[in-house]
Amino acid sequence: MKTTITKAAVAVAMTLGAGSAHAEEGITLVLNWVPTADHMPYFYAKSQGWYAEAGIDLNIEVGRGSSAAAQKVGVGMAPFGIADMSTLMLAKGQGADVKAVMAVYANSPQGFYWLKSSGINSPEDFPGHSIGNPPADASRVLWPLFAETVKIDPDTVKFVNIAPQAKMASLKSGAIDITSDFYNEHDVKLQEFGDDLGFVAWRDIGLNSYGNSLFVNSAYETANPEVVSAFVAVTQRAFAACVASADPCIDAIMADVSGLSRENQNDQWTRIKELMTDPTTTTEGLGFFDPARVASDYQLVSTYLELAEPFEPETLFSNAGLDPSVKMPE
């Protein structure tokens, strides 16, 4: 099934952008990590001039984790960011002024990886071992929830700070026993470690909360509603275009980001499309949130983690800027 991309969506983005962004307003998007396949729609839309047509001069900033992106956008240091939704909930509960405006991962991409040769066979064997990931990694922020789910003491593991790019090398060298990573990188690990690779997906143990989402600083949205609507419309269009044909989008990110493997980016995008697909994105529209699922995620986070200031879950997200005629293929 071919993804629907309407001329109306393009016209809305261009009209709204021209109405408020004037002569290309400078806009920063803070990524959750270093740029890879899940970010290529932003690079593609930028390379095609779609953001510029909507009056937006887009700057894509390399990220340091969902928590770091939520903090930066939450205090108004940048208008847009990408972050895991559960991390956004924690950030909002701590006073971050944020709202999600498009779901990227309708399914949780979170997973833990280890080598079976280390003696680990399942999460029940994690106690006494080390987990390596960046301090702002969403899986570290949400570790207490994972530990509760698999019934282990959260304090029985040691966290080691490593850069996102060092995860596989650190696992291979034995510097760490376990690492967290997104499912879209799964094929790289299979190629590297083969049958020795151990893996658990969070969604397979009942933790299938919304993953990465595009979000905005709420005060910025209030002051610049047309810019936000234009940005969301262009971004939804870009994701739909990349779902329909990945090659031009891979071209765009590889032209802008060094050190990427085309084969790896293509493999990643195949996994990402799985993560983007659920009954809501195939029927309501690509990027749409299901309010009931957001409420369920909120209940889970507020039960197992500490929200300094509780809030109504419906204030965390909006589908208003999304075109319902643009859908994920079933």
UniProtKB/TrEMBL annotation:
GO process annotations (BP): thiamine biosynthetic process
Gene3D superfamilies from the UniProt entry: Periplasmic binding protein-like II
Signal peptide (from-to): 1-23
UniProt keyword terms in alphabetical order: Signal
Residues passing through the membrane, by range: none
Keyword Manganese: no
Domain SsuA/THI5-like: 37-244
Stated name of the protein: Nitrate ABC transporter substrate-binding protein
Organism: Pseudotabrizicola alkalilacus
